[in-house]
Amino acid sequence: MAKKRKSPVKPDAPRKIPDREKLKGILDDVKDLEVESINSVRIRKNNIQYLIKWKGFDEKDNSWSNESDCQCEEKINQFYDQQTQVLTSNLSDKEREFFDWSKEKLGYSLWAADHVLKRNYFVPPVSPHHLIQEILFYDPWKMTIACMLLNRTSGRVVRHVIYKLFIRYPNPKEMIEKGDITDIAAIIQPLGLIKRAEYIHTLSRQFLTGCWKTPIELKGVGKYAEDAYKIFCCGDYKLVQPEDHALNKYHEWIMKEGDVESKGEVSHDDLVWGAHLKHEEMKEDEKEWWQTTREMRMEFAKRMIQLKA
Q1: Which residues contact 79 (CB under 8 A, 6 or more apart)?
Q2: The pTM is what?
Q3: Domain Chromo, which positions (predicted)?
């Protein structure tokens, strides 16, 4: 008769029942806790969390709290201001000027500060393939949302929709403060991607924290947007192997042509995107938005190339 095997799983340890009076006293004390400062931020399971330093307690008592549970907007704003100051403290006068200008144009600061700090002034050359990412590279928030909507949808169709979204909500702060998920869903409804309205709103809030390294850490972002970010915003096209058909075309093209625009050939933009916009069938407000965006792209490219020189 075979021996009965002992289960490798140990029986559960006896549960300790907390003293109700003691627990009540702890909960009463929690009501009186005061936030002294915010020391860090992170994203966990799509929730933004802040590391709180409690007034009257040691650093070892710091704890993470979900943003929805934090009632300390002023302390949170102070934390982001301090983070921006730290990131920009060692910038040269030219870099400081570019940072202030880009912060004003983009409507957010932490990513802009980090981008300048890394001295990443890559300008993706414009190709004959007319990818949306080529014109939106200077604004990673817009580009990431565009990629989210481009997934399984053609660039031509998306181009006729996203301008409405970005006219209504030109930056992530506007999206967070004024964005309504029902309204966002109505705008992107022609793409059949209504469920992504919530992703766009959540992604925008996560984006502003600046605590992410690549977009794939943000809600609803997959490999396609991740690859696009590395190619168009970081210039790491040699390290990327795209799986998307259109992105692959651009990747093959830039691998062959090289980083021509970052060397100073900004005029190539006029020849390609300018002519392309003129022949596109667009409404007047749509054409005006894309033309303004194209001009912004050219201004960013010009300033970034000057900094790189």
Answers
A1: 37, 38, 39, 41, 50
A2: 0.82
A3: 33-91
